[in-house]
Amino acid sequence: MFVNVIMPQMGESVAEGTIIRWLVHEGDRVEKEQPLVEISTDKIDTEVPSPASGIVKKIFYPGGKTLPVQEVIAQIESIEAKEGVVNAGGASGYSPLLETTKKIETVEATKEIEGAEEREKRYSPLVKKLAQEYEVNLEEIQGTGEGGRVTKKNIMDYVAAKSGAIAPPPVTEEKVFEKDVLIPLSPKRKITADKMIQSKRTAAHVTTVFEVDMTKIIKCREMNKDGMKREDIHLTYLPFITIATARTLKEHPIMNASWTEEGIVQKNNINIGIAVSLEDGLIVPVIKDADKKDLLQLAKDIQGIARRARAKKLKPEDVQEGTFTITNYGINGSLFGTPVILLPQVAILGVGTVVKRPVVVDDAIAIRPMMYLALSFDHRVMDGANADAFLRAIKERLEKWEVLAYDTKRSSSSTGYGGVW
């Protein structure tokens, strides 16, 4: 039996993925669940495991190729059965061996047509404008840009050649970057750039900032961090902020929503994405039903997803169904920022670093550990008053936190939150 390895869908809004590199070669013997290939999307970098034990019969696409989800990227000749073909990794059903063989044979034949269609769709506005101005048929020009794209230089050289003029000598890449360093874009950086531009073009971004006195949170953390350390939990400020945000989202459902042309969709579940910094960008794994979890469980979950993200061990379900996002740039010392909304969500909370500074308390100057919370929200969905009320509620929860010693062997609901929630 031949088992098709497909490009998996790593999130509900993910339509394509990029092959980073193959970990095996054609003819290699592989075991079930053995990593075959590293892939990258705007949601996740991960390894795709082998769906069966057998021989790598065919690898259809090289590293660096971006493909739509459900596309067959490799085929395993399984040693577990003798005939038939099955798609693994998200596609459904069986297909006859002959039909699959036909597909394999036609892959190369259709590449040229697909490439031409892709180039046509990817002509830049400048290239199209120049082609119209000089009355040039773009299909007659051989593109030298990335992926065969037609560049401005290609058009000008073509026009010069047809008119008999001498084209200016080409500027070599070595001369252009004689003193500078060209850093190739990783697949994740390219996809992230596209998503960020899409978000800024789509959502009406506005940011509001509140200052929070973290005195009680720090006292509670100091009281409990050693006990949680014995449970292999590193207690940071983030679980406190996450639980405060989750409970506040229940009271302000407009923040836990998405925009559609038909109307605003309020989400039933509160699933909070936590931005995790990686070497080549960010990834946002999701804590499901965050409002139903206590401080201990959130601390465990946040620590767990961060470890799996950095080890590239996240599963597709780990990055799906997020309804709100928290990004903790304060870990790098930043006071505050204006984070970009992760579509189709309508808001994102930025967490700044905690810094001791003088503030006025009861008409006297005191030294307090202060933190800025910055909320970027979609002005199409809500007004500033809605956003300010939401952020003010989070601030009050954190500043009125009851300092308790939590029993790590029991749920925090048994010790209570002193009516804060």
Automatic annotation (TrEMBL):
Pfam families: 2-oxoacid_dh, Biotin_lipoyl, E3_binding. Residues 122-159 form the Peripheral subunit-binding (PSBD) domain. InterPro entries: 2-oxoA_DH_lipoyl-BS, 2-oxoacid_DH_actylTfrase, 2-oxoacid_DH_E2_comp, Biotin_lipoyl, CAT-like_dom_sf, E3-bd_dom_sf, PSBD, Single_hybrid_motif. SUPFAM superfamilies: CoA-dependent acyltransferases (SSF52777), Peripheral subunit-binding domain of 2-oxo acid dehydrogenase complex (SSF47005), Single hybrid motif (SSF51230). Belongs to the 2-oxoacid dehydrogenase family. Keywords: Acyltransferase, Lipoyl, Transferase. Its EC number is 2.3.1.-. This is Dihydrolipoamide acetyltransferase component of pyruvate dehydrogenase complex. Its cofactor is (R)-lipoate. One of its GO terms (molecular function) is lipoic acid binding. The keyword S-adenosyl-L-methionine does not apply. Residues 2-77 form the Lipoyl-binding domain. One of its GO terms (cellular component) is cytoplasm. Forms a 24-polypeptide structural core with octahedral symmetry.
